[in-house]
Amino acid sequence: MSLDQIIENCKIEDAKAQGELYKLFSSKLFSVCLKYSRNRVEAEDNLQDAFLTIFKKIEQYKNKGSFEGWLKRVTINTVLQRYRSEKVFDIVNENIIEDVELEVDEDTVSIDYLLQIIQELPDRYRLVFNLYVLDGYSHKDIADMLNINIGTSKSNLARARQSLKETIEKYKTMQSLQSL
């Protein structure tokens, strides 16, 4: 069955087509969920919620643009909706701190470790960091998506970078001490 046929069958709530769509895209969308979730279990829950939303809204996809891009946007919005309902942005101090350069040496810090420490960031920092750095959204887009102002987005990004920089520096120090 072609992707177009799978999409059309999902629009009429065909369970077999929904299973095929899940099989085709669950691993890619799980990666998206993992970026925005606190841990693996939460990412699994977010993936399930995302697919429920995808199946409910699939008739809104009009075969224009990338279907995978549409799936990714629905998934990100589903995950962000969970955090909006948890009000993770309510107590944010909007003092903008100086933006920090974050350079990562791939020889010292593995991608797995980097993803782990990103997941450990407070929700408001992790979400803004991922949207801005990993997915390329502007501060205006992020502000609209998270219902915050642009200054809060910039401040949260700077704080995320600062926190990651400190964690990486501690990690490098520990690595160099262990190699002595």
From TrEMBL:
Which SUPFAM superfamilies does the record cross-reference, listed alphabetically? Sigma2 domain of RNA polymerase sigma factors (SSF88946), Sigma3 and sigma4 domains of RNA polymerase sigma factors (SSF88659)
Q: Which CDD domains match?
A: Sigma70_r4 (cd06171)
Could you tell me one molecular function GO term of this UniProt entry? DNA binding
Name listed for the protein in its UniProt record: RNA polymerase subunit sigma-70
Where the record annotates domain RNA polymerase sigma factor 70 region 4 type, the positions are 112-164
Q: Name the family.
A: Belongs to the sigma-70 factor family. ECF subfamily.
Q: Which keywords, in A-to-Z order, does the entry hold? A: Sigma factor, Transcription, Transcription regulation
Q: What is the lineage of its organism?
A: Bacteria, Pseudomonadati, Bacteroidota, Flavobacteriia, Flavobacteriales
| Gene3D superfamilies for this protein | 1.10.1740.10, Winged helix-like DNA-binding domain superfamily/Winged helix DNA-binding domain (1.10.10.10)
Does the entry feature the keyword Translocase, yes or no?
no
What processes does the entry annotate via GO biological process terms?
Answer: DNA-templated transcription initiation
Q: Where is the RNA polymerase sigma-70 region domain?
A: 21-87
Q: Which domain of life is it from?
A: Bacteria
Q: Name one Pfam family in it.
A: Sigma70_r2
